[in-house]
Design brief:
252 residues; alpha/beta; Rossmann fold; 6-stranded mixed β-sheet; 4-stranded antiparallel β-sheet; 25% strand
């Protein structure tokens, strides 16, 4: 595997909580331009691993590299500036602002402007064209004047993704993007993830295995805090250790 192909990697990633290893010795290599899924039964350490990669937790030991740069000691804000952004970390969805206003604020942040709500309408409206284009990208053009609080759950998630895309990330980390969604919303967000992956890399933690099967190029399976298997869906879904881990832990 060409080293230049690897955009995000982890070596010996470990997190210990008072003698309990939530994640132990995990190695991960995410290839540029792929959709890479992190899956596993309940208690596998997926969320902890994701929080380590996105710098929401410091590792007990191990090393994380992004585009060849060691980011182990950096903060979430630092890595966001490098182009590695976790969706929903910002939660830049203000319930009483419209969809358009929410995206506009995210665009302001990318330009380094503070949350300055007292700017003139003229200055703010300079962002409208780009904000509308992002809303179109996530299928929300018809909802630009709708308050975020009034959007359906799935459309709120789409708006959150639009506010993340406003930061123009090179790599997007999605934490259970389908959680709590009905069938129609799952299909809509799946199509959205496929569309936005055209020119960026995506790493996602996801419970919904049919979504993982249809979207992912590579899947890393965790069990009891360790990497159990890795490969495409056809490979990992037939792996006896993976089948046993899922059946043994109950599906979830």
């Amino acid at each position: 595997m060409d080293r230049d192909d690897i955009i995000l990697s982890a070596e010996d990633l470990t997190k210990e909580f008072r003698g309990f290893f939530a994640v132990e010795g995990v190695g991960l290599r995410v290839r540029r331009g792929q959709i890479h899924a992190l899956i596993g039964p309940n208690g596998a350490g997926k969320t902890t691993c994701f929080n380590l990669l996105t710098k929401f937790l410091p590792p007990t030991r191990g090393r994380i590299t992004y585009k060849g740069e060691d980011i182990t000691a950096l903060s979430p804000a630092d890595i966001a500036r490098l182009g590695l952004v976790r969706s929903f970390q910002i939660s830049a969805v203000f319930p009483h602002l419209t969809a358009l206003e929410n995206v506009r604020i995210a665009l302001q942040r990318r330009r380094g402007d503070s949350f300055d709500f007292w700017r003139s309408q003229k200055v703010l409206s300079a962002f409208d064209g780009e904000a509308r284009a992002l809303l179109a990208d996530v299928g929300l053009s018809a909802f630009e004047t709708t308050n975020a609080a009034d959007l359906s759950y799935g459309r709120k998630r789409a708006l959150e993704i639009a506010t993340t895309l406003a930061l123009d990330p090179e790599m997007l980390l999605l934490d259970e993007p389908m959680a709590g969604m009905g069938h129609e919303d799952v299909e809509r967000i799946s199509a959205l993830i496929r569309r936005i992956s055209a020119n960026r890399t995506i790493l996602m933690v996801e419970h919904n295995l049919s979504v993982v099967a249809s979207l992912s190029d590579t899947i890393t399976v965790l069990a009891r805090g360790k990497v159990l298997a890795e490969g495409d869906y056809a490979t990992v879904s037939k792996d006896p250790r993976v089948i046993e881990a899922y059946i043994g832990a109950g599906h979830g």
